[in-house]
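does this look right to u?? iron/sulfur cluster version
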Amino acid sequence: MKRVETTCGYCGCGCGIYVNVADDDTILGISPSYNHVVSKGKLCSKGWHGFAFVRDSRRLTSPLIRQKDGTFREASWDEALDKVAKGFKDAMIAEDNTDHIGIVSSARCTNEENFLMAKLARAGLKTSSVDHCARL
Ligand code: SF4
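got this back:
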């Protein structure tokens, strides 16, 4: 078994954890980092137990694009990001303003990532409609 020191990705607190990994790369469990400046050996239930998603068969591992019939097909990141960029561009031109564009960020992002999302919204997409999943 090896212990991989990292940061819990469930919320922006950024608690320090060790992921205990078996020789076949199976995650056996999580241990807190007692010396971490934020968490000091304490974790909430998500930090301790929230790792089953890693091997969940329903986990998305590539972008999906919705088809006209409502089904999804796998796409490359380049194709998916081009489609998103075109969608934003078309919406900004069609509406002649950005009232219909908004960004929903995530509680699983760090403060710095959420700051960048707000910058993208305000400076890039010219909208102040920025929200956060913690309010949903
Ligand atoms: S252990 Fe809990 S409080 Fe700490 S980062 Fe993870 S989810 Fe957030």
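The chain is about 30% helix and 20% strand. idk if thats expected tbh
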